[in-house]
Specification:
Number of strands: 14
CATH topology of the largest domain: Aminopeptidase
Largest sheet: 14 strands, mixed
Order of helices and strands: EHHEEEHEHEEEHEEEHEHEE
CATH superfamily of the largest domain: Gcn5-related N-acetyltransferase (GNAT)
């Protein structure tokens, strides 16, 4: 008979078992201890991510992580959490452990009272979506993965489109969007200890991309529509020259840049990448969150 224990991990003292379990769970990531500690503390002093775990004696067999965010909703800034890196060891599936761990973590977050809501972004079609629902989450909306199969395109002028390792401008906060500072974005994209990200800019508009293998994934974009489209078309031309198989991007039906993405020949579905279901759980609020339009920065679920 297993004696499961649920508790919050101490990141400084338990980063090694967290890394070992994380890499068993997400087999393609091979995250380092340095990366995990970096990501969990990226928001600064006293704003660390929290990691909840379920243990079978001394063995970590499940994790549930949440990081602090600020979200603009209805013109008001609210504190929210973003749930990430959740799952149960393969050997411990079908024991309702994820539901129990999720309920445990949610109750701890209710007791702490820091957030109004917590958001999660599991892949559509996975059993973990229903496990979230059983634990008290509810569906907000789907965010589809779109792609552009790279092929010859009309030559696009690269004038005024350049690469940068520094973000200098941010637009005014958009409604139903995460509010992230310039310092946070520069740390997130350009001080990553393990990976390379590229920023394409045109004046004060910007697209952040991650090239890997034969795919290029678009993680974030902002600025005025005409400049965003010019950058996306320049990226399409570069993708063809570099022989990437496809460009991918998350794009909800109510995304602020939805029409701009479609105008650049992105279509639903991708060979590389999956759509996600945006879920929420209420912490300090009684009413369920909903919105007609949003800019859920497309890379929010891309943490590796």
């Amino acid at each position: 008979m297993n004696n499961f224990q649920f508790r919050q991990l101490n990141l400084l003292n338990e980063i090694e078992p967290l890394k070992q379990f994380h890499n068993r769970l997400f087999k393609s990531t091979d995250a380092s201890s340095e990366w995990l500690l970096w990501y969990c503390t990226i928001h600064g002093k006293d704003k660390h991510a929290r990691v909840y775990g379920v243990w079978d004696d001394s063995r970590l067999v499940g994790i549930w992580c949440v990081e602090p965010k600020i979200f603009q909703h209805g013109g008001i800034k609210i504190k929210v959490g973003r749930c990430f890196s959740v799952g149960i060891d393969d050997d411990y599936r079908r024991r309702n452990l994820f539901v129990e761990l999720s309920k445990f973590a949610i109750q701890k977050e209710i007791d702490l009272g820091e957030f109004d809501y917590i958001f999660g972004f599991p892949q559509i079609g996975r059993s973990i979506v229903n496990a979230h629902i059983k634990a008290g989450w509810y569906h907000v909306q789907n965010i589809q993965m779109y792609s552009n199969k790279t092929k010859p395109v009309e030559p696009t002028s690269l004038k005024d489109v350049n690469t940068s390792s520094l973000i200098e401008y941010l637009p005014l906060s958009m409604n139903n969007s995460f509010i992230e500072t310039i310092d946070y974005k520069n740390t997130r994209w350009f001080k990553h200890p393990d990976l390379l990200y590229v920023c394409l800019k045109r004046y004060e508009s910007c697209v952040i991309v991650k090239p890997y293998n034969n795919v290029c994934h678009i993680l974030d974009l902002y600025g005025i529509s005409c400049n965003v489209k010019i950058i996306l078309n320049a990226l399409r031309m570069l993708a063809h020259r570099h022989k990437w198989q496809e460009l991918t991007i998350w794009n909800a039906d109510n995304e602020r840049y939805h029409n701009d993405i479609i105008a650049c020949d992105f279509v639903p579905g991708a060979t590389n990448g999956s759509s996600v279901s945006m879920l929420a759980v209420n912490i300090n609020r009684s009413e369920n969150i909903k919105f007609d339009s949003c800019h859920i920065q497309m890379g929010i679920e891309e943490i590796y």
